[in-house]
Amino acid sequence: MNLFNFLNRRTSAPVARERLQILLAHERVSGNHSQLVAVLQEEILAVIAKHMQIDRDKVVVKLDRGDDVSTLEIDIEMPPQTQSQARPELSL
Amino acid sequence: MAKVLVVTSGKGGVGKTTSTAALGAALAQAGQKVVVVDFDVGLRNLDLIMGAERRVVYDLINVVQGDAKLSQALIRDKRLETLHLLPASQTRDKDALTSEGVARVMDELREKFDWVICDSPAGIERGAQLAMYHADTAVVVTNPEISSVRDSDRIIGLLDSKTERAEKGERVDKHLLLTRYDPARAKRGEMLKTEDILEILSIPLLGIVPESQDVLRASNLGSPVTLADPTSAPARAYTDAVRRLMGEKLAMSIPGDKKGLFGKLFGRRVA
Ligand SMILES: Nc1ncnc2c1ncn2[C@@H]1O[C@H](COP(=O)(O)OP(=O)(O)OP(=O)(O)O)[C@@H](O)[C@H]1O
Ligand SMILES: [Mg+2]
Questions:
Q1: What is the SS3 assignment for A89?
Q2: Among B130, B132, B126, B123, residue whose Cα is nearest residue B102
Q3: Cα–Cα distances in angstroms (integers) from residue B203 to residues A35, B2, B141, B206, in the given order
Q4: Residues B23 and B45: beta-carbon distance below 8 Å
Q5: Partner B contacted by A28 (CB < 8 A)
Q6: What are the backbone dihedrals phi and psi of residue B252, each rounded to the nearest 5 degrees, phi first?
Q7: How far apart are CA A40 and CA B241, in angstroms?
Q8: Is B34:B145 a contact under the CB 8 Å cutoff?
Q9: Are B50 and B21 in contact (CB under 8 A)?
Q10: Which of B109, B68, B110 is nearest to B89 (CA)?
């Protein structure tokens, strides 16, 4: 075994620790996120359904968690025009 | 008051069944009335580790479905009067375990025993969730290895959300049991450090069980390691773990280390 191998072996546990910390931080958060996103999607759909018909896939909820800033993006595509009054796409 | 304890891990083969048998026997040796329940439907093994495989007549599913009375299915240990086994079914399909049926059996077991110890199947699916649902206390069995730690993290998440206690806004008491700990590899820095695992999972440490031939020998003999060889290193680790479960404060010893040092460093985190 050469010196490089020797050093490499010694450092494998700290590498494992670091990988785990990063991975789990991500998994814990994304676990909660996917739930939040699903709940938001359902509730928004329910509110819209009171006033008009809309396809489920026309409501898109996206959550982006960054280190400093996180953004919640809700995109609702209105159904094609049936009435005279034109409405712009609504984006929150 | 009876305590329901689940031995769980997510990852397979980390030592749940070994630990269930060893903890159950050690509790019974301490005079407690204990039943160990095998939830690993289709892959039962606890009967083998307990040395009771030839005495199985009825199983958990028979009782859940009302085909047998609980008293007919319980097997009393030949060595320890207060130790009992409720075996899993080897053949039937997993869906035969209904949550209402399991709840009924758990209620009945709570009345009869001080400790109901549930050996969870591997995974995070229905079987594992049924095994943990009624738990007051959980022993999360983890090997000092990256994928085992990750799976333990998932299981801890489930214990905090998918149990009866969680649904009532209460907590399951969670403990980490490190098993298959290899002192030589730890010394060489090849194994995740205990304090790192504790920091990552942030649940208190119940014990460290070394990798040992004694475990294999005990399983060959069909005897929990705490009974087969009470003075062996793994048996002592399990016996200490049980004393901690019963509320004693003991210094933690790392296998292969000078005794006490670890306890001084991490005593405050000990369960
Ligand atoms: N401390 C130990 N030292 C050496 N071998 C061990 C130790 N603990 C467990 N083993 C061995 O590891 C293997 C798996 O153990 P066990 O069956 O208890 O794991 P398990 O988590 O119940 O597995 P499964 O997920 O399949 O139910 C067995 O062969 C057992 O003898
Ligand atoms: Mg098992």
A1: coil
A2: B130
A3: 24, 23, 12, 9
A4: no
A5: yes
A6: -85, 135
A7: 44
A8: no
A9: yes
A10: B68
pLDDT, one tens digit for every residue, chain B (271 residues): 799 999 999 999 999 999 999 999 999 999 999 999 999 998 999 999 999 999 999 999 999 999 999 999 999 999 999 999 999 988 767 788 899 999 999 999 999 999 999 999 999 999 999 999 999 999 999 999 999 999 999 999 999 999 999 999 999 999 999 999 998 888 888 899 999 999 999 999 999 999 999 999 999 999 999 999 999 999 999 999 999 999 999 989 888 765 444 544 554 444 4
Q: How many Å apart are CA B180 and CA B255, to the nearest integer? A: 10
Tokens 């995070």 belong to residue: B124
User: Do B189 and A13 count as a contact with CB atoms less than 8 A apart?
Assistant: yes
Span from the CA of A84 to the centroid of ligand 1 (angstroms): 71
| DSSP secondary structure, B215-243, as one string | HHHHHHHTS-HHHH-TTSHHHHHHHHHHH
Ion ligand 2 neighbours (CB, 5 A) are B 16-17
**CB-based contact B63:B89 (threshold 8 Å):** no
Please name the residue that has the structure tokens 């301490």: B30
% helix, strand, coil for chain A, step of 5: 55, 15, 30
Q: ipTM beyond 0.85?
A: no
* Cα separation, B202 vs B224, whole angstroms: 29
Q: How far is A56 from chain B (nearest CA, A)?
A: 28
Nearest Cα residue to B25 out of B238, B174, B176: B238
Q: Which of B232, B266, B227, B235 minimizes the C-alpha distance to B249?
A: B266
Strand pairing partners for A60?
Answer: A75
- Interface-testing mutation among A1, A6, A8, A12, with chain B (most B C-beta atoms within 10 A): A12
